[in-house]
Amino acid sequence: MKRFLLALGLMVSPALAAEPPRIVAEDLRIPSDTPGIELFLRNKRPATLTSFRPERTVLYIHGSTQPSETVFDLPIEGESWADRIAARGFDVWLVDVRGYGRSTRPASFREPAANGAPFGTTAEAVRDLGTAVDFIRSRRGIERLSLIGWSWGTIITGAYAGENPGRVASLVLIGPPWTEQGTPAASPAAPVGVWQEWTAEIGLRRLQQGVPAGEAERIFPAATRAAWEAALLESIPEAAASNPPRFRSPAGVLADGPAYWRAGRDFHDPARITAPTLIILGEWDGLAPLRQAQALFSRLRNAPVRRLVELPRASHFVLVETGRDALHREVQSFLEQD
After folding, report:
1. Cα Rg of the chain, angstroms
2. Is residue 10 part of a domain?
3. pTM score > 0.90 for this model?
4. Where does the AB hydrolase-1 domain lie (predicted)?
5. pLDDT tens for each residue of 9-49
6. CATH number assigned to the domain comprising residue 85
7. Beta strand ranges found along 32-153 (DSSP E)
C-alpha cells in the first residue's frame, strides 16, 4: 500500500514530491598548454543549477589506461556516478588527459610504439589537470573546487593539490597506489614506446587483482561488464579493428615507473596537501593494497581532515562493481561535510 503525505488538503505521493532533477550534459574540447593538443571535458549538472559554489563543484580524473567516461560516467542500471553526484545539486566535471579517450591522440598512436618517445607522463597529466581546473574556475567564477582521482589519478590530483592549495576545496583518492618503505631500486627496464596496448580481458584481470576465486563475476556481473566494454569501444572506436578489440593508451606512466614508484621515490609530498582528504579503497584491492593507502595516509600531516575507509567485497575497480553504492555514499558524505 502506498503512503501519502497530507499537505494543504491534498494527497501528495512521496515519489512525486521527490522527483529527481533533470540532468544536462555538455561535452567540450579545450586547448592544453601544448600547441595542437586538446583536452576533452564533460560537464553534468541539474538543469536548474545557475549559481555555482566551490564546495559543490567536482572534477574527476581517470587512471592509467581508461578515459574518465568509461568509469565515472558509465551508466549502470540507467545511472552513472556522475549522474548521482549531479542529482545532489553538484556541478560535476570529468577530464581526459592527453592521449586518453576523446582528448587529442597523436599521430604516433597509429605507428609502431617504438617509433617515438613515451606520451602522457604524470608530469604532463598534472599540467592537463591544471588546465582543466583553470577552465572550470574561469567559467564558473569560483576560486576552488573538489577533486576526485582514481588509481593513477590519485597521484595526479595529489601532486596538483600540493602545488595549488588555494584551488582545491577537498580531495578524494580512490585506490591510491603509493610507495612502500623498503621498495628495492628498480632494475633496468625495457625501453618504453609511445603507447601501451591491452584488451578488456587483460585490463579487467589487472584491475581485479586480489579478488578471491569465484568472486570476480559476482562483484562485476556480466551485464555491467558488457556495458563497460561497449563504453570502451565508443571512446576508442579504432580498437574494433582487432578481434578481440585492442585498446591503446599512453605509455608515459610506464616510463615514470623506473624513476619513481619502482625506485621507491615519491612523485609528490603528501605533507603539502592542505585540503580535507578522503582515501577509500576495496578490501580486495591487490593493485593498490591497504598498506599503501596507510603509508599515504600517514604522510597527510597537514590535511585538516583526513579519512581512510576500506570497503568490503570490492577490488581496485570498485567504482563500477556491486560495492559502488557504498563508495558513492562515503564519497557523497565527505563532499557534503560542513
Report:
1. 20
2. no
3. yes
4. 57-321
5. 334 444 444 678 899 999 999 999 999 999 999 999 999 99
6. 3.40.50.1820
7. 38-46, 57-61, 91-96, 145-150
